[in-house]
Amino acid sequence: MPRAVNSVATRAKRKRVLKQAKGFFGRRKNVWTVAKNAVEKAMVYAYRDRKQKKRNFRALWIMRINAGARLHGMSYSQFMGKIKANNIELNRKVLADLAMNHSEAFAAIVNQVK
């Protein structure tokens, strides 16, 4: 009995991977074995960096809040401690936006917690 192969599914899988490799450089975009490895590695990087993006943004927000707080004579840790003590429920994203784009509103918050 001959071996059964599903060439339709195999072709579809290869087309899907080569479509994902669109825009890659050199043989990574059109040679199956190279493209398969490149796409697999790209997916690993994408998964990892979705997590890293959250860390990077939190670090950026902390830097911006720290810079805004130091203009008013406080450190970041003092400012966040007083924010929590006064039950002001603004997250770091909002506080960073206020410090960056609405300095008068951020100053009002600093004055309220002092």
UniProtKB/TrEMBL annotation:
It comes from the Bacteria. NCBIfam families: rplT_bact. GO terms for biological process: ribosomal large subunit assembly; translation. The gene is rplT. Keywords: Ribonucleoprotein, Ribosomal protein, RNA-binding, rRNA-binding. This is Large ribosomal subunit protein bL20. It holds the Pfam family Ribosomal_L20. Belongs to the bacterial ribosomal protein bL20 family. It comes from Flavobacterium urocaniciphilum. GO terms for molecular function: rRNA binding; structural constituent of ribosome. GO terms for cellular component: ribonucleoprotein complex; ribosome. Binds directly to 23S ribosomal RNA and is necessary for the in vitro assembly process of the 50S ribosomal subunit. It is not involved in the protein synthesizing functions of that subunit. HAMAP family: Ribosomal_bL20. SUPFAM superfamilies: Ribosomal protein L20. The lineage of its organism: Bacteria, Pseudomonadati, Bacteroidota, Flavobacteriia, Flavobacteriales.
